[in-house]
Amino acid sequence: MSVETKVQGRVTSHGGVRALYSGNARSVVGRGLLATRSTNWIIVLTGVFEPIFYLLALGIGLGSYIGGGVVDAHGNCIPYAAYIAPALLAVSAMNGAIYDSTWNVFFKMHFGKLYQGMLATRLGPLDVALGEISLALLRGAAYGTTFLLVMQVLGLTLSWTAILALPALLLIAFGFASLGMGITSYLKSFQQMDWITFALLPMFLFSATFYPLSVYPAPIQWVVQALPLWHGVELVRGLTTGALTPAMIVHVLYFLVMVAVGLVFTTRRLRALFLD
User: Fold this and answer.
1) For residue 65, how many C-alpha atoms fall within 13 Å in the half-sphere facing its CB?
2) What would the pLDDT profile of 175-194 be if each residue is shown by its tens digit?
3) What is the C-alpha separation between 195 and 203, in angstroms, rounded?
């Protein structure tokens, strides 16, 4: 009996919510952790160092030439390294989540054919989506936590509220991972996968990562403020510098909506690909 026949039989017999979710996403996470431990741990480790290199080269190196520092949301002048460090922290969470929910998912979907096998069992598309997104979330959290420790060692966390950056990183990673997996499900070739890098690079450079948003003309500022990374950067920067503002609630709501849209989008896409 083919995988497709088995899957169709399972959907027909259960239907409804049980066809989408069996409550066993942890099995997908467990399989992914075993695979990472055996083959992918070096790749994961390399992603930890990239934002640290940026911090040392630009925050510490270039920052030594910027004597006046940068003004935060409360009008306080802070060192340049302390200004870009939280932005790089948000970027590290984004990168960890995106790489796991795009390239890994792409390989499993088109080469490993893992999802067809998973969905031939009692697992539903929401189990698979939650499991893969959780793996991406763990990777993003690992990157972010490591970078936050480096910031602490270098004295770049300027407020006790920096501890709240940890749940903020999880939220940022969750948002990017849930949407990234759904987008990847539409991509068919390695050339198309390069579009993800093409989208991430300008977002990394222009989301107030290295300089304030005010340097842009007003129309460009509106575009930047629509980008998810800008919301992540502003959220984490406010927490690590202690410059808390009501706008941070908007940043949190932005990512909550992103998570909800991403989960619905990814679940429906997996069902359309492998069950309908």
Assistant:
1) 4
2) 998 888 888 888 888 888 88
3) 13
